[in-house]
């Protein structure tokens, strides 16, 4: 848990929610990423003291305490967790996104809210609920954050960008009899990238 990283991301989005999960754990979220809070019990006053915000910034923030019945907000690995592999990074609207493989296609999560987690210890899993993914970010064996991937419309744009990046690396064969096989391979590549 990196309080400064959590504070920076919550202040940037001007929203912070304290979630009490069904497991009894607490998470702090900015609506895009949730971070597990360990060793503390937070409420609005404790959070404001922990963030140590000036009065003006505090007035700009929306602080909410809520309960959640989403079982994906557990720190331990769920039986439904699907391992995801990082396959690259893409810059989109001045933000860097990590591209992850999943059974539902490519998922894109912003790197900024999780960049404090060391890359050599970081791994990803996808938790699904009604076809809606939530990306669990592990630091070694322990979960550190949960990220909402980009929405479908933005993800489609990133899939298109990824396809354009991958396209120049594909060489069409010179022989005509290999062209049909090449077309099938190109379709498979586009399908894997969700294009």
Task: Please explain how this structure is put together.
This protein is of the alpha+beta class and 195 residues long. Among the domains are: 3-67, no CATH class; 155-192, no CATH class. 28% of the residues lie in helices and 32% in strands. It has five helices and eleven strands, in the order αβββααββββββββαα. The strands form two sheets. The protein has an eight-stranded mixed beta sheet. The chain has a three-stranded antiparallel beta sheet with strand order 6-7-8, covered by helices on one side. The longest helix has 15 residues, at 152-166. The protein starts with a helix and ends with a helix. Residues 167-173 have low confidence and may be disordered.
SSE layout:
Elements lengths: L2 H11 L1 E6 L5 E4 L3 E5 L6 H8 L3 H6 L1 E6 L14 E3 L1 E7 L2 E6 L6 E4 L11 E8 L2 E8 L2 E6 L4 H15 L12 H14 L3
Parallel strand pairs: 1-4
Antiparallel strand pairs: 1-2, 2-3, 3-11, 5-9, 6-7, 7-8, 9-10, 10-11
Strand count? 11
Strand % is: 25-35%
- Largest sheet, strands/sense/barrel: 8 strands, mixed
Radius of gyration: 20 Å
Unreliable stretches covering 5 or more consecutive residues = 167-173
Number of helices: 5
Features of the shown structure:
single chain, 195 residues, alpha+beta, eight-stranded mixed sheet, 32% strand, globular
Task: Give a summary of the structure in a few sentences.
The chain has 195 residues and is an alpha+beta fold. Among the domains are: 3-67, no CATH class; 155-192, no CATH class. It has helices at residues 3-13, 44-51, 55-60, 152-166, 179-192; strands at residues 15-20, 26-29, 33-37, 62-67, 82-84, 86-92, 95-100, 107-110, 122-129, 132-139, 142-147.
């Amino acid at each position: 848990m990196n309080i400064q990283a959590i504070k920076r991301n919550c202040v940037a989005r001007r929203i912070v929610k304290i979630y009490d999960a069904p497991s009894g754990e607490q998470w702090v979220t900015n609506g895009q990423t949730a971070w597990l809070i360990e060793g503390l019990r937070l409420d609005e006053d404790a959070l404001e003291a922990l963030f140590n915000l000036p009065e003006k910034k505090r007035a700009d923030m929306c602080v909410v305490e809520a309960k959640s019945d989403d079982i994906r907000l557990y720190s331990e690995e769920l039986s439904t967790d699907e391992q995801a592999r990082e396959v690259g990074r893409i810059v989109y609207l001045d933000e860097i996104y990590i591209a992850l493989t999943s059974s539902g296609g490519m998922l894109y999560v912003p790197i900024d809210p999780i960049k404090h987690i060391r890359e050599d210890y970081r791994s990803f899993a996808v938790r699904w609920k009604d076809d809606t993914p939530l990306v669990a970010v592990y630091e070694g064996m322990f979960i550190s954050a949960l990220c909402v991937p980009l929405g479908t419309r933005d993800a489609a744009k990133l899939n298109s960008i990824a396809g354009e990046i991958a396209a120049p690396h594909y060489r069409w064969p010179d022989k005509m009899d290999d062209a049909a096989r090449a077309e099938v391979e190109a379709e498979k590549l586009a399908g894997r990238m969700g294009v």
